[in-house]
């Protein structure tokens, strides 16, 4: 039986999986990401872990279809990373290095794009070929999958949904250097920012005042019927829903998959996004599904494996 | 030698081309689009014209690789058109009908998407595989080509760039029923609208007052150094450039190809768009080319043929 490896490189750990050619996860493990010295050990560590696993399972090279890898950085068509703050990398010919270490065919893409492919394959986009995944974490990432294939973009920067400008009047600067990026309103950090502005208004009675405000506490307060928290959720939904309506006029997906830490709030999120989406979407693209990501931390290894097993 | 047909169905004429398998245009002609009786004759007319041409040139069916067709409507993955105002069609199984008339393999896509593929192949996007084409006509159409292939979208509505909302404060309604669509500012009609608002300001001295204002007269006045016209062009460039910056964060093309009637103004357009684009684009996608469409009326037949010759 043939198999492949799916690898998801994060700033703290590298998640790894061994997949059968039918797509079944045969094994799953993690190694530490050693980011010291500009992350020079990372690719060697990954390669050693793959070769060890092959030895442990007595897998011959001819049985391994390849290695798929997701990294937190833009990746060019040749598998070159020009810089990753999370890993400490500057210019790195990541695909070439991994292939020379392991002797296995390797494909590398941006981690958010890979996660989108994983969710299409086994998660929130199951059964679809055209999806957009939005990852609401500390920042906002995203991935576009068209006809079952990742859209990497000419500079490896497709799916950078968090940096769509949604407010040209914004005076606070985003991490990217621009002003008014979606990430400033609809990420976990952005939701806290919206909530703090709401709390700064005098005379508001809300349970949000009782504890340190977080995206989680906002949506818990929404579930408890808190009016101020609901207004924050409506603002969040408007920024995100309007943006996705614009995005639908460009790539017209069948499903939007909402993932990342914020999505742990659950189904409560969806109506806020969907209501604003429907207010603004072109009539031809109103019939779109919104689902929650379903694979959690496995999205990356699954998407990486899928790149090898055939998009 | 093998060949194929490229067909571009417009509301007035159907443009048709015969292409060699190397991509050379061997013949080019037009027939009238008979839109009466819900356009019921259109597909039969196209089929008859193809069969005539095959007879005239003594082409056997085995020599014809297929027929590519662009239509002014969204097209589903099965080649079904659910309605086209320009052609009078309601629900029409266009691919199936054409294939049964001609016995030739047929592929149908939206005309703006097809034109984008044509421009990638032989026009403003020559040498590239990831392009976005923006067609600035009476309205605004567009097409997205990723890895050399048209992105049709789940509802056949990808590339509807004209209906991205760029102004949530707008009170005038767009043809689509929404408010603040790009088309209301950056199409030929939109540019006239911006110019008329500028002219309505008292005390403005501008050569635009001398004649009926049009997109053409605005850009001619810009070339003549007219200050008011230049301000209108700056507004146009801001709406379009900011939108393309947002779009680049989603699909990250290598080139934006600007086409349609407005693009006949020539190179004078580009700096207005590019300046605003660079103000707002994410750092990773700033290095993008802006080119003018180069194929004119042939973009449709070329893109249609390219769908058959292999994207």
UniProtKB/TrEMBL annotation, chains A, B:
InterPro entries per record: ATPase_NBD, ROK, ROK_cs, ROK_glcA
* Signal peptide bounds: none
> What's the domain of life for this entry?
Bacteria
Transmembrane ranges, per UniProt, are: none
- Entry's Gene Ontology BP terms: glycolytic process
**Which molecular-function annotations from GO does this UniProt entry contain?**
ATP binding; glucokinase activity
Provide the E.C. number(s) assigned to this enzyme: 2.7.1.2
What's the short name of a Pfam family annotated to this entry? ROK
Which terms are listed as keywords in the entry? ATP-binding, Kinase, Nucleotide-binding, Transferase
**UniProt entry tagged with the keyword Transferase:** yes
- UniProt family annotation: Belongs to the ROK (NagC/XylR) family.
> Mind telling me which PANTHER family this protein's record contains?
BIFUNCTIONAL UDP-N-ACETYLGLUCOSAMINE 2-EPIMERASE_N-ACETYLMANNOSAMINE KINASE, ROK (REPRESSOR, ORF, KINASE) FAMILY
Q: What is this protein called?
A: Glucokinase
Q: What is the lineage of its organism?
A: Bacteria, Bacillati, Bacillota, Clostridia, Lachnospirales
């Amino acid at each position: 039986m043939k198999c492949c490896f799916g690898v998801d490189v994060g700033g703290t750990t590298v998640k790894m999986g061994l997949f059968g050619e039918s797509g079944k996860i045969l094994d799953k493990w993690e190694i530490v990401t050693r980011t010291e010295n500009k992350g020079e050990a990372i690719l060697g560590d990954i390669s050693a872990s793959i070769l060890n696993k092959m030895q442990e399972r007595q897998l011959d090279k001819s049985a391994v279809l390849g290695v798929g890898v997701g990294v937190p950085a833009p990746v060019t068509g040749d598998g070159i990373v020009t810089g990753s703050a999370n890993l400490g990398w500057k210019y790195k010919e990541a695909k070439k290095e991994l292939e020379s270490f392991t002797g296995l065919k390797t494909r590398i893409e941006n981690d958010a794009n890979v996660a989108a492919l994983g969710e299409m394959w086994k998660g929130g986009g199951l059964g679809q070929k055209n999806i957009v995944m939005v990852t609401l974490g500390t920042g906002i990432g995203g991935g576009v999958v068209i006809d079952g294939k990742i859209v990497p973009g000419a500079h490896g920067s497709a799916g950078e949904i968090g940096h769509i400008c949604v407010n040209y009047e914004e005076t606070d600067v985003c991490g990217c250097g621009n002003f008014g990026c979606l990430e400033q309103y609809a990420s976990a950090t952005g939701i806290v920012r919206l909530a703090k502005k709401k709390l700064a208004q005098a005379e508001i009675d809300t349970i949000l005042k009782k504890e340190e405000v977080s995206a989680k506490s906002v949506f818990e307060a929404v579930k408890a019927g808190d009016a101020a928290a609901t207004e924050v959720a409506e603002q969040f939904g408007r920024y995100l829903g309007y943006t996705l309506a614009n995005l639908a006029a460009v790539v017209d997906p069948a499903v939007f998959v909402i993932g990342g830490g914020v999505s742990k709030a659950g189904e409560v999120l969806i109506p806020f996004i969907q209501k604003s989406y429907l207010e603004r979407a072109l009539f031809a693209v109103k019939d779109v599904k919104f689902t929650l990501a379903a694979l959690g931390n496995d999205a990356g290894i699954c998407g990486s494996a899928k790149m090898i097993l055939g998009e």
